[in-house]
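S.,

Sequence below, as promised.
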Amino acid sequence: MQESMRAPCQPPLRVEAGPSALGRPWCEGPGLSREDESRADAATEQALLFGAAQTAMLFEGLAGFLFVVKDRAGRYVSFNASLLQRLGLPQDAALRGRTVTELWPEALSCRYRAQDEWVLSRRSPLLYQLDPILLPGGGAGWCVTHKYPLCSAGGQLHGILCLSKDVPGLRRDADDATLVEAVDAMTKTCERRHSVAQLAGMAGLSQARFSALVRRVFGMSPQEFIVRHRVRAACALLRQEGESLMDVALGCGFYDQAQFSRQFRRVVGMAPSAYRRQWATQPTGMMPWPWEPWVH
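The prediction came back faster than expected:
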């Protein structure tokens, strides 16, 4: 199901992110005018975007990887050459400042934009998304995508980091939407107790074929894939005060606290209560991402 490029070439709305942004002081504290606060916030945003943009260079020449940095408005700030190859554009194409709606076919851009809005509204990462994509050269393929909010140490949201890795040899079919829906159910609504039979039915596949596909793409069974997403959701709740371990367990789809504690310890390597205590003792700004770095 190969899509064609529909985006017209238009002059980009350029988002400047360069060394000059790093030279502007970041100020805080009493006495700042609203204008000074706005300038400080803009300087912080430009410095973060500039720093994140350098990461794209790490993915140059790595086959099968697409890396993108976007600002809060969803405009492209930086990307590796893979983006141009997938869109069939020359190396000097002006893409900075453009959006997914302008660049990708509608069938793809709607999903990508919805994912960006999900990350921005929740200020949380969206991981292990099975996405249809254009491969280098324009062919139809699949990728696994991770999206992270780009936040300052103070918690201000400034953009999105996106990393996609192609899934070689996985064919796109007319019923792609059903497979995407089943994987989304495991990642976005993992607290619901979907059985493998229900998920396979959602994808329009037999249980055996669905399980084999999930294992091929994600390297684990559907059951383990769901458990790890539940544990990741539990980590986010454990970093907040007020919810008991039982409430966290039930809210993330576990049957009881005992099952939750066993699975959490197996995946993370420590008890939920120990994780909560460890997070509470972390110095402010010590950890760059406000979620667990230990769950893979």
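The longest helix spans residues 34-55.

Coffee later?
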